[in-house]
Amino acid sequence: MSKSKSSRMPASKKPLIYGAGVVLAAAALGFVSYRATAPDHSGSSASSSSVADVTSEPDAGVYPELAKLARRDAHDKLAQGRVDAPVVLIEYADFKCGYCGKFARDTEPALVKKYVENGTLRIEWRNFPIFGAESEAAARAAWAAGQQGRFWQFHRAAYAEGVKEKGFGKDRLKALARQAGVADLDRFARDADSSAASAAVGKDQEQGYGIGATSTPSFLINGRPIAGAQSLETFTQVIDAAAAKAHDTENAKSGENDRGAEGGAK
Fold first, then answer.
1. Does residue 6 fall inside a structural domain?
2. What is the side-by-side order of every strand in the sheet holding 121-127?
3. What is the pLDDT of residues 114-167, one digit of tens each?
4. CATH number of residue 142's parent domain
5. Which residues of the chain have pLDDT under 70?
6. What pLDDT score was predicted for residue 12?
7. Which pLDDT value is given to residue 259?
8. In this structure, is residue 256 part of a structural domain?
C-alpha cells in the first residue's frame, strides 16, 4: 500500500459532491486506507495483507452509491470485461506505486483468467496519480496509449518489475509505448500532452478523492471498498460474494416479472 504524498488535490475533492450516501462511504474508505498504513504496536508500518476486514457476506461493507460509479461504457478504453458483467472492480492506482505494481503482476492476471474471461467481472481503471509530476505524466501516457487500443499493454509494460525505478520521463514513456505496441508514436506524444488527457486524468483523480481514497491502490467491488494490494484470496472472496448477490437479485427480479405476467393473464 502506498500512501498519498501529493499536495495537488482538486478543490472539488470533498465527498459531498456525490451525495450523502457517498459521504458515509468515503469515511469508510478513508478509515480502511488509514488502517492499511497504520503503525503496528512495534511502531513499524503494518503490511497491506493484514488489514482487509472483508467477509463472505454479500452485503457487508457495501455502499450502493459507490456501486453507481461503475461506468459500464462500451467505449471505455481503460476497461476490460463485459459491459453487463455482474461484478465491476474499479481500481484507483498510480504507475509509481509499488503496491499497485504488485497487484498488477501477482493478482490481476489471475482475476482476469478466473472472472473476466468467463464474463463475471469487469475491471475499470481510474488514473489516480498521487506521487507528483512523473505520476501524472505516466497517467496521461497510459490514457494516450488507450486511444490507440493499447492501454492494457502499456499498463503491463509500466508495471513490469523494476520499471518504475527507471522513472517516467518522456523518452521512457515513449519507449514503454513502443513496447506496448502503440502504432503511431507521434500521435501518442500529442495525445499524452493534450488537454483531453489532462481532463480525463483529472476526472478520475477527482473521483478518487471524492470517495475518500487516500492511498493506492484503492478498489471498489460493486460498491465495497478494498484498500491495498490484498491477497488473491481476499479478492476472490469479495468477487464471489458480489456475484452471488447479483445472481440472487436477478433471480428475484425475474420472479417478480413472472408473477406480474401471470397476474396480467388472468
1. no
2. 79-80, 121-127, 87-93, 218-221, 224-227
3. 999 999 999 999 999 999 999 999 999 999 999 999 999 999 999 999 999 999
4. 3.40.30.10
5. 1-56, 255-266
6. 43
7. 63
8. yes
Neighbouring-strand partners of residue 215: 3
Q: How many domains does the chain have?
A: 1
Q: Which domain holds residue 204?
A: 13-32+65-265
Contacts within 8 Å (CB) and 24+ apart, 166-174 = 167/134, 168/95, 168/96, 168/134, 168/135, 168/137, 168/138, 168/141, 169/134, 169/137, 170/137, 173/137, 173/138, 173/141
Return d(Cα 64, Cα 125) in angstroms, integer.
19
* Residue 148 included in any domain: yes
Contacts of 181 (CB under 8 A, 6+ apart): 150, 153
Instruction: Indicate the helix (H) or strand (E) that contains 91.
Output: strand 87-93
> pTM value?
0.82
Which tens digit of pLDDT belongs to each residue from 14-31?
443 455 556 565 665 654
